[in-house]
Structures are given as structure tokens and as C-alpha cells.
Amino acid sequence: MTQNYDVAGLGNAIVDVIASTDDQFLLEHNIAKGVMSLIDHYRAQQLLQVLPGGRELAGGSAANTMAGLASFGGRGVFMGKVRDDRLGQSFARGLEAMGIDFPTRRASAGPQTACCLIAVTPDGQRSMNTYLGACRELREEDIDEAAIAASTVLYVEGYLWDEPAAKAAIEKAMRIAKGNGRKVAFTLSDPFCVERWRSEFIALLKDQIDILFANEAEAMALFETEDFDGVFQSLRSFPGIAALTRSERGCVVAAGQEVHVLDAHKVPRVLDTTGAGDQFAAGFLFGYARGRPLPDCGRLGTLAASEVITHYGARPEKSLRALAMAAELL
Amino acid sequence: MTQNYDVAGLGNAIVDVIASTDDQFLLEHNIAKGVMSLIDHYRAQQLLQVLPGGRELAGGSAANTMAGLASFGGRGVFMGKVRDDRLGQSFARGLEAMGIDFPTRRASAGPQTACCLIAVTPDGQRSMNTYLGACRELREEDIDEAAIAASTVLYVEGYLWDEPAAKAAIEKAMRIAKGNGRKVAFTLSDPFCVERWRSEFIALLKDQIDILFANEAEAMALFETEDFDGVFQSLRSFPGIAALTRSERGCVVAAGQEVHVLDAHKVPRVLDTTGAGDQFAAGFLFGYARGRPLPDCGRLGTLAASEVITHYGARPEKSLRALAMAAELL
To answer: What is the pTM of this model?
Structure first.
């Protein structure tokens, strides 16, 4: 007997290793400041050895969203590839501790578990080096048909759309969701990701996606427009739901002729915007899976995003369920 | 033979008298800081005598909009009541200098020309004392039928909706516009104004208004809702065009199922937001009268608003036409 889930997440399984450093450390180790760079196995090993006393946290975009879903009291299952190494166990424990099922078989050979080495300098900037490792090995056999069939929504991160085998896995997951009358949600993840796969993403949008998540930069890259209204008009012909996040401007949720313009929750001080999009998706999907009207889905999203930007790290520290109840959204 | 106009404006004819003072001056003369207070003739005379070397500028909300229209190269005619006194002549000269026709007969008796005495303290705050005087005498015979019949749009400021005779004048003006196949635009002007006349404004919205201008506070007061999306949903059943300004969040323009979400133009520094709404209306109405699509009308509006908030005073200092051409909007 399979449990029912609100959301099945499909994404890169990454362990974040966060350490405080100074600018001199970045210079010495040739780390580009304030951006995300992809690195290989050797460079990852080298940086892991020199990074001073890093804190490990299960991370990755869709996995962060599942953490937010759990914080709302939602039930989630996550699929993503790790190896049977120390970081892979750390990732699995992180999800399990939050009550998120993680049925994906750990690889017993091949690349190590992915990690994102994050150096935080005193000015608050985050310099990220990501080794994708085992993430890139995700393939069709990792897709858990029963889990997807039992989930109200399948949520896929666009970052995954880079390897042919991972694409086949995503397509299989979407077929299963559709075949079981479930909804498919997709996040564009990153403007560079959109640049690489624009025409394929647009094809997915036509045929496969029921709920699209994008921020302004990603959506402008997708439609090659220069302002938000251009994006918004392009998306109005999309038959599904578009949830467009706009940082301090809140979000716009459009479903055909139904349009909602929702303001951001006010926060006293923004500390670190990492994870804002992931947590927006968590709130929105929790509301959607629980049958809430679209404006409330958007408000749950902006509420979750407002929590995560007031502290370092991409996962909620407070109970999102408690915050949502205080805001009379649950 | 009557000239054709883009816009006929109907509003309070007020001369702004602006002076730099210190806080001690406000205390000595019992002026409430940072707000607009309505004052009577005696108090106005008293303050005019003590206000140190004030600069006079033709003002008033709809008149400011006409000034913006002229700066775009639009043709305007303004109706509003002044007396045949020094300030009345100053007001008329101000409009004429911009090429705006001002056919309203100057009163030869009754209250003096309206003035708004503005004390600007070193902290940049504006403490305003408005004497409405002759403004309140506007009546049906001041409505120039030929001018309205020759204008693409009649634009009325909500501030006028306070005296029975002025209401009759507005109703006459709207009848003339409708009877000649012209459009009627209306601005809510002020949340307090909306509180006083909510049900009458809602009735106007149903029957008379083709284009509604409102900022968030005014629209929330009208529909008694607590967030922007509530306003936006209320206005979606309005059969005309709603142009909703949102300060740094730009504006939303909705006409039935057509919705545009337009960002504010970025400005290096906001100095004084007085006149932002008036200039937004100027840009929007200029675009509308010239047959531009709605998103361009909105963009012309936010462009004009962005100019006026970078300096003191409610009228443009730069040529809005030149700015619009530089922004490729004309």
C-alpha cells in the first residue's frame, strides 16, 4: 500500500558545505566571488580539504522545496541521485529527518555525491562551487512509478535537464504523472539553464507542464523579452498556471484569464536570498495540493520566501505551518 | 471654428506658494508638519503675510496633468475657477505659457483665488495649507461645451466632487463628453475624498467613467479591501480601463481581460513624490488620446512620473516629449 503524497520532487541531490572565509581565501584558492561555478571531482576534493570547518546541509533546489513543503505539514517524496558515500548518507538523513521519503537507490559505483561548496565572506556574499557528481547519473530506472502515481503534483527542477539520461527520466516521470491524472510542475531554475534549453523548455510548456515557476530573469530569457510585461503577455497564452516571482515586487499568478498580482510579505531585513524561489514553490505547491484558491497559493509562496531570506541558508528555520496560521492563510 | 484637443481637464485651480522655512516657523505659526490641511480665507491671508519670499507656481492636480500633457506636445484645455485677482492672473499666465487654453471666466466677486501654501523644511518635508476659495465656486455655466466636444478625453479630478454646484458642473461636462462620443477619465485624487464620496464614486464608475486613475491607497479605500489583489479583482468587473499606480512597483493597467503589469522607471534618487500621480495621468492620457496601445500608455505614464519625483514641485522640468523619444516610446 502506497502513502499519498502532496508533491513528488525530482531534482539534483546536493549537499551544501558552507564555511566562513575571508576574501584572501577566495584569492588563494582561485574562487570566483559571488557566483556559482561548476567544478569537477578533482577541484571538489581539493576545495573540500582546504575549506575551513564547513557545515553540511542537504541542499539542491527541488530538495529545498520538499523541505519547505514538510515545514508546512505537507507530505513529500524526493527522487535524486546520490552515491553510497558519506555525503550521500548525510543527504538521505537530512531528508528523512524532515519526514520526506527518498526511495532513490544509492549508486554503489561511479561519481561521488554532489556537493556545493559555499564560501561566505564577511560582506555576506556567497561564492559557490558545485560538483554535480552522482546527480548526473539519474536515469529512467530511478523514477519511482508508485510514488509519482500517489502524488498530487510532480515537481521537476529545470537544472536536471542537462543529461540525455536525466531528460529520459524526467519524460518518464511526466508520462506517469499524466497517466495517473496528476499535475506536472516545472521550474526554469536559472537563466543560463534556459539559454541552453530554450526550445525544449518551450516544447515542454506546450505539452507537459501544468504549473510553471519562473523568476523574472528566467522568464525573460525564455521568451527573449526585455521587460516583465512582455513575459506576462507571452505566458497568457500558456494554458496552465504561471507563477512568476518578482523579488521585492511579490508575484503574479496567471491561469488563463484569471490573474492575481500579489505583493511580497514585508521583512525587516533581507540577509540572503538563496532559496527564495525554492521556498516560494514550496508554499505554492502546498496550497495547490491542498486545493486552496490561486491567490492563497501565491500568498503561501511569498510567505515561505519571506522566511528564508531573513537568515542564511536555503531552507526554512521557522515552522512555515505556524507562520501561515499566524498570517491566517491556513 | 474650435481647435481639437487631446484632453479637456476639469479641476481645482490653485496657485502653489512654496517657501523654505525651518521647524521653528511651523511651530510659531501652528502649521501641522508633513500633511495637507484645509484653511479658510483669514488663515490664508495671515500665512501669506508671514511666509518668507514664496515662489508662485500654477498648481492643482488636473492642472498639473495638463502641464504634463503640454510637455509631451499634447494639446489641452483646462476648466477651473479663479478670481480676477493677482493669484488668478498668475494661474492663468502659468497655463497660457504652456499653451494650455483656459476659457473659464474669472470671477469678479466672491472668494479669492485658491492657494496652497507650502512650507518646505530642511528635512525635505512639505507642510501644506490649502485655501480652496474661488475653486469652490465652479458651476454649470463654467463648463465650455465646445471645448469638451472637441477633446478626445475629458479628465476630471475627484477633489472637485465636494460642492453640489461643482458636482452638477462635472455631470454636465460628462454628459457633453458622452453626447459627443468622447471618453471620460476620472481620478480618485485622495483616500479621504474617496471616504467622503464612496457610493457616489462607485455609481460614477458604473455609468460614466471610461478610464479610472487611482493609486493603491485610493483604490483600497474605494473597495474597502486590504491588499492590492483585492482592488485588482474588484476592478476587473469594471467595463472601462483601470490605470492603477503603485509607486515604486510601477502600475497595472486593466481593460476587461487585457491586463498589463508595468514596472516603474528606475530613478537615481526620489526627491519629492508630489505630482507623481498627476504626471502619470498626463503620460497615460497623452498616449491614449494619440491612439497608443495600453502598455505604451502606461509606460508614458510611469516615464512622466519618474521625471517629476526627481525634483521638487509637481510639474515636469524636462521636456517629457524628449524623454519619451529617448525611451523610444514616441
So the answer is: 0.86
